[in-house]
Specification:
The chain has about 250 residues and is an alpha+beta fold. It is built from five helices and six strands; from the N terminus they run αβββββαβααα. Strands 2-3-4-5-1-6 form a six-stranded antiparallel sheet. Strand 3 and strand 4 form a beta hairpin. Helix 1 (about 5-50) packs across helix 3 and helix 3 runs antiparallel to helix 4 (about 210-225). The longest helix has about 50 residues, at about 5-50. The protein is elongated. The N and C termini lie far apart (about 65 Å). The structure holds a DNA duplex (16 and 16 nucleotides). Its main location: nucleus. Pfam families: WRKY. It is found in: Nucleus.
Length: about 250
DNA sequence: CGATTTTGACCGGCGC
DNA sequence: GCGCCGGTCAAAATCG
């Protein structure tokens, strides 16, 4: 072990450390932005829920359920396409009063008679976020190849499911939707992602006001993990990825 | 030329 | 009862 070798090694490690710190800082900022957006959307959702149509909260016979999925997209992309593994046919578009962005109406036509509909509209607060509202239950299985493609080819990522109730019970239900719970944030390199707690620890200790930020992040994580809908969506996403890795052979 | 999307018209529910 | 608004229909337009 020569001193030169050690020095070189130390320099390399320092460079790597600096690189990681910058990366952590950027990811931390993105995480904070995302958490703000989530809180904003959650509050808007709660406001709407409490202000409008309270009588509709009485569940219909058979339980008509709706779930919302928030999808982060490229703001330049004006299309209202949410790749979720199902085939949808657009049957209408409307501009609603509370949102200048048009709302598109889709029906599932993967199977004849499938009653599922979805409404897709850009978030009024952040036009890079698409809100997809699903209604009904599919009477057929999801097209796993399309779902797989949608995960790899789409530049969008569903950041969370703001569900009042998820119409497709996760894991054991073959009719569940492809709710992609992607907390990695669009545009970031998958290879660069370490596990979140250590990432947050590095980030929080590398800043002067680290304690404050750390507390914010911990609060947010606690908030998310307490939300049963988040847990359900997370479980669905994990199940989805397992299914994609080990696809069951399709019948001839 | 068939499939799909667009878009204006129509319908029904809800609040005033 | 009337008007507003969201959701759906269906003819026209567009696409492959």
């Amino acid at each position: 072990m020569s001193p030169d070798y050690d020095k070189e090694k130390v320099e390399a490690l320092e460079a790597e450390l600096e690189c990681l710190q910058k990366e952590n800082e950027a990811l931390g900022l993105m995480f904070e932005t995302m958490s703000r957006k989530y809180i904003m959307l959650h509050q808007a959702y709660l406001r709407q829920k409490s202000n409008k149509r309270q009588r509709l909260e009485v569940p219909a016979a058979g339980g008509s359920k709706a779930s919302q999925v928030f999808v982060k997209t490229d703001p330049r992309d004006q299309s209202l396409i949410v790749q979720d593994g199902f085939q949808w046919r657009k049957y209408g578009q409307k501009v609603t009063k509370d949102n200048p962005s048009p709302r598109a109406y889709f029906k599932c036509f993967m199977a004849p008679g499938c009653p599922v509909k979805k409404k897709v509209q850009r978030c009024v607060e952040d036009k890079s976020i698409i809100v997809a509202t699903y209604e009904g239950q599919h009477n057929h299985d999801v097209d796993s190849t399309a779902a797989g493609k949608s995960l790899s080819a789409s530049c969008s990522s569903a950041i969370f499911s703001g569900t009042r109730s998820i119409p497709f019970p996760p894991l054991d239900n073959p009719f569940r939707p492809t709710i992609t719970l992607d907390l990695t944030l669009s545009g970031s390199d998958l290879q660069n992602h370490r596990n979140l707690p250590s990432l947050m620890h590095d980030y929080s200790t590398s800043n002067d006001d680290g304690n404050n930020k750390k507390k914010k992040i911990e609060d947010y994580v606690a908030f998310l993990t307490k939300d049963p809908n988040f847990t359900l969506a997370l479980a669905a996403a994990v199940a989805r990825s397992i299914k994609t890795e080990h696809p069951k052979p399709s019948p001839p």
